[in-house]
Every structure is written in C-alpha cells, then in structure tokens.
Amino acid sequence: MQLINESKSKKTINKKNLKAALTLATTALLGSVQVSAAPSSVAADKDTWSFDSAFLYYSEANRVSAAEAVFNAKKTYSDDSILNLKLTVDALTGASANGAVAQPDVQTFTRPSGKGDYEVKAGETPLDDTFHDTRVQLNAQWTQALAPNFTGSVGGHLSKEYDYLSLGINGNIAYDFNKKNSTISFGLSHFQDTFTPEGGLPKPFASMELAYNDSEDESAHDATRMGSDDDKTTSDIMVGFTQVINRRMVTQFNYSYSVVDGYLTDPFKVLSLLNNEGLAQDYLYENRPNERTKQSVFAQTKYHFDETILDVSYRYMWDDWDIKSHTVDTRFYIPLGNGSYLEPHFRFYQQGAAQFYQPFLMEDDATPEFASADYRIGEMTAYTVGLKYGMKLADGNDLSFRLEYYRQDPKSAGHKVPSALANIDIYESIDAIIAQVSYSF
Asked: How far is CA 184 from each of CA 26, 79, 246, 250, rounded to the nearest angstrom?
C-alpha cells in the first residue's frame, strides 16, 4: 500500500487519499492483503475499476519451489467507498525438511501416509520429497466513510488447500483529526482453520514406524494416530496511529495482539532420538503447546525527497513461546523519467528460538512436555536483497519486474552437538531466488 503519492508530478501529500490508503493498509495487516503495484496515486476515477495482477516464483536451492498468481480488482465509487476483491492461487512443490538431523549413515523415513518410505543420503539434511500443495485464496474488503472524519472497513477471507481450510473476517475503523493530518485506527480479525493432514494427526512423541505394504497390517500406523483432523482459531487486535509530519514525510505506528488456540503442532515434523554418540535410534513426532500469544510493535516512515522516496520500517515481535524477532525493511524509490523507476530493497530479520526448540532429543534424557526441531521456530538470521524496475506503458498502464535473493541462516541456539555429528552441518543455510512480474491496468 502506497502511503505517499510517489508520482513525480506530485510532491505534496493528498490528505483524503492518504486517509483511504491508511485505512486499507491497516485492514490489510489484519488479513486482506493488497497487491503491490507500480507507484501511482491512491485516488482512482470514480465508479471505475482498476486491476492489479502479479505472478511470483520462489525457489529454494534443492528444496521448495512456489509459483503464485494474484489478481486484485478495486472499484472506487462516487462517494469514495472502495470495494476490493482479490484472488490468489499458489502451487508448491519440492522437498521440505522433516525435522530430523543429518547422520553419518543413510536414513530411512516413513512417508506421511504411512505407506512407503524414502531414503536420505549420509551427511544430508533429511528432506521429504513428496511435499506439494495447491492453495486458492479469496479476499474481499469494503471501505467507506461512516461519519465526518470516520472511515470503516470490513472484509472476509477464504483459503483452501488439499489438507487445510481457513475462514476469516476482519473489521477496522479509522478516525481523522488535526485537520486530517493525524489518524488513529482500531482493527479486529478472527480466523477459523481446520487441518486434515494426510495420514492423520500423530500422537505426541509417537515413534515413526517403518513403512508397511498395502497387504500388511496397518495397525502399526494407526496406533500412532489420535484423529484425522483438528482446528485452530486466531484472533487479532491492532491499534494504529498515523501522523503526517509535513508535506514530505508521513509516519505510522501499530501495536498488535494475537491469540492462537488449538492444534499448533506440525504433523509432518519429527525429532531424531540420538544415543550418546549422536547416532539416531528412533524418530519421534513433535509436540507443541496448543496456545500461543503474540504481540508486536511496528513503525514505518516514508520521506519524499525532491525526486526519490525512502521507505523504512521496523517491527519487533515477542510471544509466550519465548520467540523474539526484529525486522528491518528498507525500500528506495528512484525515478528514471518517462514514468519508469528503480526500487532497491533490503530486509533483515533476526529471530530467537522458542523455549521448546530442540534440534534433537537424547536417548538418556527424559521426554519433555513439548519439543520441536522445526528450524522455523529456532534461532536464525535472514536477509533479502533485491531490485524492482517499473515503467509506465504507452496506454497508461503499469508494468514492473522484481528480482530478489533470500538467505536464511539457522543457528544452534546453544545446543551441544554430539561427537558423531561434529563434522556434519545440521544447521544448513537456505538460499532462494524470488522473481515477480506485476501489471496494473
């Protein structure tokens, strides 16, 4: 969402357009995400539709690849009400880390269905190469003036995957004051998700049994299951404040509070059970708490120089799993003339480990109440660097291209590595390329 008009011909902030943009931006953070288009005015012709489309490709080296198509339609009515409709289709495939640690010998794992197995070479991070999914997501958002200086917004969300269904609603109200130079907003959202993983839900710390053939007794697999589906709910509250500092600068501050309740374990992740030397004796399904409370503060500033625009934001998140994270994101808009521009991008992310994160379990230790070897809740640093190029076409439409490099570096979080794993990289870095094409008309 563009908070400042980035058109070269306009060097002052349109307060009415800014109010609409901030209202939509707030609700976007609560679940209705808008497609990022080439820089343009927030205002649109009355009673007309505008469209944004984008295709994104994400690819990790030797791991997951994702292709995403997005189509966003917006209509601005004569009374400044706005209808936003968005369709997103994702296709994911490749190999996903199953949580087990690399070993000096070949490892064999059961597939999620319990039928069939796959092998991982010695010294390699165990990856399940059957990972694939398709997601279709629909979002709708309606924004309108409720009273002088008050703007309201409501929206709905539907997302369906092979084994996952998510339904959500959100609402926001914004109040302008100080001659419309200041805006305070309050938003709520609620999501209801249902998970039906292939093979069912594993019991906490159940052993991953060896694969069996269709003709054999399936009771070994069934004994490790506790059901076929489960639910979780997510409720979010966000308070925001936006201040126009002067004709060149606008700032935004948000505080969000989120409560997640229900099934939060990843049914496809396991932990390696190691002996004193570090050799795997078994693989146990993980177990996470069924509640999580997250809080975050967010600050963003956009400054419009004579020609260029600097956009800097910082986010700090903490939760009751003891995960704390810092995110710094910077974009710099550089006009090239004739409606074209460059936008360098840099993002840095640092995260601490959850209190129950363990890269492996030791055979002689007592089984903990909760444990997960998922690197996504472990200690890590990550950064993204990239460049976007956009242009104004002869018909007035916008076309842009974005190419970025992403690197993620998991850390040990203080866990001592057993002798058999001393020469094996059990915290393997992840490299990815992100490419996107966007077209607005």
From this structure: 10, 22, 17, 14
